[in-house]
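Lab meeting prep.
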Amino acid sequence: MNTKKNSTVAICLTAILALSPIASFAQATTTFSGEAVALRASAVGISLALSDTGALPSSGGNLSTSLASLNVLGLASADALKSTTSGSGTSSQSQSSVANLSLLGGLVGAGVVKSNSSATCSGSQASVSGNAELVGLVAAGQSVLVSNPNLAISLPGGISLVVNEQTSSPSGNTGSITVNALHVKGPSIDIVVASAQSGITCS
């Protein structure tokens, strides 16, 4: 009887020890987030999300999408819309770009608009970074040079423009950042050009 009991206990202990590393490993897996959108716009009666990768699975992978051109009369036109997002190993990255951009009948325009974001693990510590690249940016007929993030510009008609808009939340083993290369807001108008979001939770 005792031998039988001892055997049962031994089997149970062996099972617990064998499964413990698997449980620990499952809890310690790095997870990812990411999404890139070339142009997102909402105006009266119009809602668009073009060249949108959709959300990256928490397990990572690669998503990409592109669009040759768009032309929504009076709202936006652009060429070569492209977005990518990926996650693997210890980092996630997203990137989005458009060329020959014109918004609101030429009120805002640029030759190239591009955003980049990344989230990285260094051990169990998460860090994030991002930037916007703009070539030939013009707002209300004036050239705009971009340096620091979140440059705010007031435009005619109660319209505001934020250039290289960045929001981030690194905290311990988790980090996320969103870079919107251009964000135009006004009465009944909200347009984001080249948005790149990356996030990570480190094991």
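Slide two material, second protein:
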Amino acid sequence: MSNLARGGFAAMFAALALLVGTPRRAGADPNNANCKPNRATCTGNHQCCSGACTAGLCTAPASTTTTTSPSTTSTTVTTSTTTTTSTTTTTLRFVDNGDGTVTDNETGLIWEKKDNTCPGIYCVNDAYTWSSSGTAPDGTAFATFLVTLNGGATGVGNCVSSDGSSQTGGFDNHCDWRLPTIAELRTIVDGSVAGCGPPNFSSPCIDPIFGPTGTASVYLSSTTSASDSGRAWFVAFGNAFAVSTITKGNPNYVRAVRGGS
């Protein structure tokens, strides 16, 4: 090759070197004039201006968040505990007062307790009439039974001296014994008593605390029938506690009460 030819090739290679530039050294600082911007294709972090090549594209470097956890101090507090034992007292509805009377704590009524001392004012088998005139409360239930209980001879609930200054008697030291209303009489019916009602009717439908209870007749109330003034309401404790009216002149059982309204 002539010297002229060699000189031409040399000049050509020099020109190409100036166009292409000097190759960047692998691993050089990416922040130079030849680095690639974000979203440009890349094969390594060193090719990107951001210094991060992710999935073949230059990307912004991931930000790093530093979390500081506060220190926690655990404190155990010991509390003195006092154990209190509570006692629940159940009040019985019916209470035998031991003086021939029974108190109903639900209604506040005090009832006469019957016995088997016959003859006697508390005899379970004694029967009395509501009226002797047909409608007025002048039968033996009022004129004999209640008068005797109230210790006087001048009427129901009247057992004080003539001037009203002193009490002269009365069952359980009270002078206000009376026949119960039909509503009051029904409050002592107890259909849960064993043997009460059908099929055997072997026990009266009333708590045994009231003493013996007649089953061959009915118990009179002080309530007159609204439709017939000659009839009074009654409760039959021995007949599945039937409630109805009966002629006031018929002799029947009675049980006195006091208190209430």
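Talking points for slide two:
DSSP finds three helices and nine strands in the chain.
Confidence is low (pLDDT under 50) at residues 9-28, 64-68, 73-79.
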